[in-house]
Amino acid sequence: MSSPARRVAQQVLLRVFEQGAYADRAFAGAARSLDERERAFAQQLAYGTVQRVRTLDHAIESLGGRAVKRFDPPVRAALRLGAYQLAYLDGVPARAAVNESVELVRTARLERAVGFANAILRRLAEGARPLVENLLERTATEAALKHSYPDWAAELWWRERGAEEALALMRAQNEPPETVVRINRRKPEAARVKGAPDPELPDALHVERVDEAALEEGLVWPQTRGSQLAGLAVGAREGERTLDLCAAPGGKATQLAGEVVAVEKHPGRARQLEENCERLGATNVTVVSADALDLPAELTGFDRVLVDAPCSGLGVLNSRADLRWRARPLPQLQRDLLRVAAERVRPGGTVLYSVCTLSAEENEDVVDATGLSPESLADEWPQFRHPARPEFLLTLPHRHRTSGFFIARLRVP
């Protein structure tokens, strides 16, 4: 019988690729019964396979001589899991990867498929790693196949950043994300949380893993340095009123000083936002369940507005395994949100626009379309200065080793 971790990983693949589920939600449901060690291995298998699936399918088809789409879903998932272990994991013996993957096929009661699945996996054991390692990356299309990205994302980065930067970005976003929490200064007990303080961001703590007890007590909040930078750049102060237009789950809203109104459209996420604010002791935050594009009239006259807008997420692909396969740019929604923000801030107030994506269409172009004057952030955060537009900030996974964020602060006349 196959190991519990591999069975869970197979379930996640089936949910993601056959039913359109989100990888993190599928994993949370499937992995409930696993112990800590098995859970970590199952997550590595599931997320790694989802992330690398384009390259894995190429290896399976090249060495197996059969289109992946022709396999039964449980067989396809088992072959992908086996290929991932054989091509990318050094700590798993090839025999174990082959045998356990074959057992996944047998457990699915597909005896007729056991023989050819075994044959394909043995070919993968011999050839998957050299095949993957020898894939070319001379063009955006070649690089997209080698590093498992959709062509459009690779072509975008190739065009906007050049081949060298694009390749570095693709490689970095296939590496594990940083494990960083934000210390909750509202609670003095947070001082006992162990970790390495970040030299650049005041509340960022590098940790080996997120302490679940500290999280439950509201002492910390898991938040990348790129995300924390966006919250800091709002510049909210005591005595001011700030509107957070896209607030859930609350990481940035609970960073802000002064009176904060946090808006969330979906009732379930609004309830979660309220619970997070309560856990973190953010009594200065009032949650409003409303559509940011159709706000109650009384929500106006704010000193500052934060628009942490929905986006394609091209800066957080290493922390959301399936996002690269479902991402799409949202420039019109972003422009609409900034229009609302400009209407709800007082004259002379500021709007902070942030997105966790790396694309001019959703970065500079959206800001330029507002006609608002940017306030330079370069003096406050010179190490994160945008390379082409120094008035903005841009964190890059391959340079700053954190999530990719574009950040702009705009002054409303």
Low-confidence stretches: none
| Main beta sheet strand tally, sense and closure | 8 strands, mixed
End-to-end distance, in Å? Answer: 68 Å
Rg on CA atoms, Å? 23 Å
- The total count of helices amounts to 16
The ordered H/E elements are HHHHHHHHHEEEHEHEEHEEHHEHEEHE
Morphology: globular
What fraction, in percent, of the residue positions are helical? 40-55%
Calculate the mean pLDDT score and round it: 97
Number of DSSP strand runs: 12
Q: SS-based structural class?
A: alpha/beta
Please state roughly what percent of the residues sit in beta strands, choosing from under 5%, 5-15%, 15-25%, 25-35%, 35-45% or over 45%: 5-15%
Protein model, in words:
- There is one protein chain.
- The protein has 413 residues and is α/β, with parallel strands linked by helices.
- The protein contains 16 helices and 12 strands.
- Strands 5, 6, 7, 8, 9, 10, 11 and 12 form an 8-stranded mixed sheet that branches. A 4-stranded antiparallel sheet has the order 2-3-1-4.
- Strand 6 (259-264), helix 12 (267-280) and strand 7 form a beta-alpha-beta unit.
